[in-house]
Amino acid sequence: MTGLPVIDVSGLRASDPAARAAVAAQLGAACRGVGFFYITGHGIADALLDSVFAAAHQFFALPEQVKLRQSIKLSPHNRGYVALGAERLDETAPPDHKEAFNIGLDLAAEDPDVVAGKPFRGVNLWPSLPGWRDTVLAYFDACWALGRTIHRGFARDLGVAEDFFDDKLDAPLATLRLLHYPAPADVTEVPSLGVPGLGVPSLGAPSAGAPGAGAHTDYGNLTILAVGGVAGLQVRRRDGVWLDAPQVPGALVCNIGDCLMRWTNDVYVSTPHRVIRPAAERFSVAFFLDPNPDACVAVLPAVLQAGATAKYPPITGAAYLQSRLAATYDHLRDAPG
């Protein structure tokens, strides 16, 4: 129906090596092929999924001036609220017709990395909504655990130790994004709050021709996406054909990003995708699993064919993420790191 494989990943938790190997082979085939796949057997409870979507509805229903109190422009660490028109994932298209809220690894203000001002090591920004923080952090942790399990399958398929990625994802540059694509009639003027630069999105208000999310590849290692009932995601096949990726009951959508593609010397290939402008209001929740900031992202020797050379020099997780985000957000172009 979709052209995207459906993989039951529960076997990755099995004690039987053959069961883990079978799932790893399916993941590897998907990552070498279309780069997208649905997963079942993921272990995230329906109640938790329902709760995080309820949290998204609750936040995005707030008045714009309230949401802007947690503006991403107040954080140099990619946390907080992203207003309509503040992001352009496809530089050839108008600004995206969406708003978002980013949550990172939850660090205390006294954490040494926060105190030192290390890139992407800041505190989260939280709206004043009872129970909201606990809900989204519970979902963050569930996706983080799932992502590390899936990486054990990647490692087995790529010919390295199953635990190869464990110490590179134990303090990751992960981001949980709550996403809201308003129906076209719902767009309103964004107030300024009297704070320069906060009221008017840097890229301007969404135009009539704006995509929901412009065509792009993801930056990190792995994306885990939950969709709230309204379709819109499209995936570009290797021959250039755009495939619809409708919601599959009980399944999450996964895709690999450019960082894992780099680690595998393009053995795994990240895939352009987009969200078309929805006719109805749309919600989704995406978890982006990027490596630890000090993780060395270097081509795995195991993936190099005889006589082949690495296409990419080593880079740290933080330096790679900074380079990618700077191309998306105006306010990060001159950020440290």
CATH class membership: Mainly Beta
Q: What structural category arises from helix and sheet content? A: alpha+beta
Radius of gyration: 19 Å
Distance between the termini: 44 Å
Number of domains: 1
Stretches where pLDDT is under 50 for at least 5 consecutive residues are 186-205, 330-337
What distinguishing features does this structure have?
337 residues; alpha+beta; Jelly Rolls; eight-stranded mixed β-sheet; four-stranded antiparallel β-sheet; 7 helices; disordered C terminus
Chart the SSEs and their pairings:
Elements: E1 6-8, H1 17-32, E2 36-40, H2 46-60, H3 64-67, E3 80-82, E4 99-104, H4 112-115, H5 132-158, E5 175-181, E6 213-216, E7 222-227, E8 233-236, E9 242-244, E10 252-256, H6 258-263, E11 273-275, E12 282-289, E13 296-297, E14 315-316, H7 317-325
Report on the architecture of this protein:
This protein has one domain (13-332): B-lactam Antibiotic, Isopenicillin N Synthase, Chain (Jelly Rolls), CATH 2.60.120.330. The model is unreliable at 186-205 and 330-337 (pLDDT under 50). It is α+β, with helices and mostly antiparallel strands. The strands form 3 sheets. Strands 1-2-10-7-12-5-4-3 form an 8-stranded mixed β-sheet. Strands 6-11-8-9 form a 4-stranded antiparallel β-sheet, with no helix packed on it. Strands 13-14 form a two-stranded antiparallel ribbon. The protein is globular, with a radius of gyration of 19 Å. Helix 1 (17-32) packs across helix 5 and helix 2 crosses helix 5 (132-158). It has helices at 17-32, 46-60, 64-67, 112-115, 132-158, 258-263, 317-325; strands at 6-8, 36-40, 80-82, 99-104, 175-181, 213-216, 222-227, 233-236, 242-244, 252-256, 273-275, 282-289, 296-297, 315-316. The longest helix has 27 residues, at 132-158. The protein has 7 helices and 14 strands.
